[in-house]
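Why should sequence recovery work at all? Because a backbone constrains its sequence more than one might expect. Tight turns favour small or flexible residues, buried strands favour hydrophobic ones, and helices have their own preferences. The token representation captures these environments compactly. In the example below, the structure is given first.
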């Protein structure tokens, strides 16, 4: 999928940029990443911690899109937004890889180890920090 397809299919649309909404979503993202940090990683919590951290990342992307005047309704279009609107190819590739892993865990029951979860959460946190820099520009 590409950005124009996202817009044409209505899974992304132009909106009036809303700084207040973006800040509110960023605050929610902060709470989720802090919650993920509080959760001890174990065989039982590995997938949940990954999902929580991913949600925090996705919320930062949502805030960024809103700041740029877009509402995005599916995760795949966040990749297109990063790549085609922001010209952030590296971030788009990293997000899409994390999205695919998270989908396997959430929707197909793939289990991940404690070590995998810890590594993926760190990748998510690193990408989240980069996306926040885009948001604060």
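From this structural description, the recovered sequence reads:
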């Amino acid at each position: 999928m590409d950005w124009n397809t996202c817009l044409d299919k209505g899974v992304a649309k132009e909106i009036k940029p809303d700084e207040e909404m973006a800040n509110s979503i960023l605050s929610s993202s902060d709470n989720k990443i802090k919650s993920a940090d509080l959760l001890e990683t174990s065989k039982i919590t590995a997938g949940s911690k990954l999902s929580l951290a991913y949600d925090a990342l996705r919320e930062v992307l949502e805030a960024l899109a809103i700041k740029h005047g877009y509402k995005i309704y599916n995760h795949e279009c966040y990749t297109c937004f990063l790549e085609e609107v922001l010209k952030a190819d590296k971030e788009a590739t990293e997000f899409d890889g994390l999205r695919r892993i998270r989908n396997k865990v959430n929707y197909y029951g793939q289990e991940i180890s404690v070590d995998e979860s810890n590594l993926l959460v760190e990748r998510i946190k690193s990408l989240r920090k980069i996306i926040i820099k885009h948001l604060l520009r």
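A few observations help interpret the result. The radius of gyration is 15 Å.
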